# Entry
Amino acid sequence: MKSNMKKLQITNYKLQILTALMFSMLFKINFAQTAKDTGKYSFSLKQCIDYALQNQGSIKNVMLDETVARDKVNEVAGMGYPQINSTTQFSNNDPSRRMFMVGTGSPSFLTGNKAIPAGEVAAFPNFFQLQSSGDAGVSISQLIFNSSYLVGLQAAKTFKELSVKTTEQTKIQIIEGVTKAYYLVLINEERIKLFDTNISRLDSLLSQTKVMYQNGFVEKIDVDRLQVSYNNMKTEKEKFDNLLLLGKFLLQYQMSMPLESTLTISEKISDFKVENANVTTPQKSNYSNRIEYTLLQTTKKIQQLDIKNLKLSYLPRISAFANLGFSSQNNKFDYFTKSNLWYNYGLYGINITLPIFDGLQNFYKTQQSKLKLKKIENDISTLELSINLQMKSSEISFKNNLLSLETQSKNIELATEVARVTKEKYRQGVGSSLEVITAEAAFWEAQTNYFNSLYDALISKVDYDKAMGTLTK
# Structure
């Protein structure tokens, strides 16, 4: 009896810890909802996951990042298209800038018959330029060859690939969180049902014992013992009611569903079978199934493109250009009449830039990039070891939880039979109330252990699927 009560105290202590943890998580929730939603929902696990994948803020952000990555590819590609700019300028010089010259002591075509003393500076009106001028032109440039552009286009596409994989990683994290929270609600609902059944059984037994006491067949202590057990079970049931409510809040939080909404679970725990699960780890790990591994591989590819870009930067950069336009000058600001004369001009050419010496900057940049690549390769090797360990440990954990679940299932059958026989003996007057209470406590403990094992098995199944890279929608 003492052993059973001690185990029940340990179970209650675990429940208190779980309650505290769930409260701490709920206090971190941002209750400022963008839109009030007080609807009622009855969801299956798949529907909960679908809702979360549509409403989670994290998935919305990575989807936006994915769109940004696609736009980045188009932005880089646009550098290879013709670049066209137009410029129109009108200016009026009033007064115009003067022309300056140093005197030679002799007459010139600027001074006419006058001579400016040698060494003196004289200013004259600028008769080479009229007071007002206008220019309207178009400049066109076209990239012909640039290694950085070609590598940059590859890098932009790889960056887009990285954003898509980041989105997939976020989806897996959401699926994991929603699934575990969903299982917690399912388990607690089943526990509530068992509480109702056990309370009903104890209430019936307590009523019978009171009648037996009134007729002098049992002592007052027998009634008190059963009353204490009944009161304790009622209290535990109230605790689990609160835990169930907290579990639903946690599930709604994982789904990004407003807490004002009412969520009910449309499935039962019997819909999820884990007893006959096939738990085997392949001899050779397929790392590409793990999104973390493919993310690192994509990061490695980006770093390799950076090294390639630095090496090819010594190649010449070639581009063509053209400047076309019309210009005019006038002695007054008037360019929109027929009398004004505009003359076209044009300039065409090819620009070739060949790096010769940059103070070894590019060399050291390449060395740094190679070291970063080495770090990524080290991270990949470490991740491979981690994946191997996760696969093995999740397999062992899942198998152990399945064994424990099988054992606890048999224990429930045994405890049920013991409780039945003990009650029957008590009704016939050949057993004591203490034996009944002990049998009921053992039965309740067996039920608690079974559902703990069932929850552990379900959670370890999620961890196993994640380790194998098969936890997908």
Remarks:
- The longest helix spans residues 147-214.
- Helices lie at 2-27, 45-55, 57-78, 147-214, 220-255, 291-312, 361-427, 433-468.
- DSSP finds eight helices and eight strands in the chain.
